[in-house]
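Most newcomers find our protein records easier to grasp once they have seen one. Sequence and backbone structure share a record, each on its own labelled line. To make this concrete, we reproduce a full record directly below:
***
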Amino acid sequence: MMNNPILEIKGPDKELSTIELSSLLTDSQTSLRIGRESDNDIVLPNPYRKVSKYHCVLERREGEWWVIDTDSANGTFVYRKDNPAPIDVAQQENYSLMLKNGDEILILGKLIEPDDYVFWHLMFWSNLDTLEDDKQTLLNYLKQRQGSSLEYSLSQERLFQVSRLGSKEIALRPNERKLIHYISQRNMENDGAPIVCGYEELIGAVWLERYGRTNTDINNLVWHIRQKIEVDSGEPSFLKTVKGRGYLLEIKVCP
């Protein structure tokens, strides 16, 4: 790994800046704090208050760089091109993850609608000699994923992403699986065509006890699923919002 990796930062409004990480460190400093407050080493201005005051830390350990979630309100995620879904840093050991060349750190920037999320994108590049090749590899991978489709087996209760790269199972948590299973079943009953599922029926499908559950619970569940199945969760191509009604899912359903 090179001594001075760079971080390409793109905000919710698409402005782009580049930072040489080591240039921000003092002689005795080994970490950089990221957040919306002005006393952070890397400031992410956020009037929407979705970025925490002190959101996460980049730390250099024995030549490697790690990202550490510091109990942020909306989480720190890492998108890695060989991983089917963004990695939740807070779920890793010691709330930290060692960064690899080409990793993309995702931090929630704002909500356009209650379920329309826009992120800060922090691209970590540790090898400038291969930077252009790495960017092209990542671009090609994203293009291949953009041409992918979803398949769900009702009998096996398993979700797959199918593309020119092959078929890969997407790991789902129990409530995520319940939502995907229910919408897939409704599609099957509709001759395989996508059908809009309303909030009330989705709440009933996921939680047996509906008391206290709201549309926000479904929106949060959809957000987590989109991180796993969409190339760009801000512009979903599979799990789509039907404003004022609910969601529909573009998917091939197998018995």
Remarks:
- Residues 30 and 61 are 7 Å apart (CA to CA).
- The helical segments are 131-146, 174-189, 199-206, 215-229.
- The two ends are 48 Å apart (CA to CA).
- The chain has two domains: 6-144, 148-254.
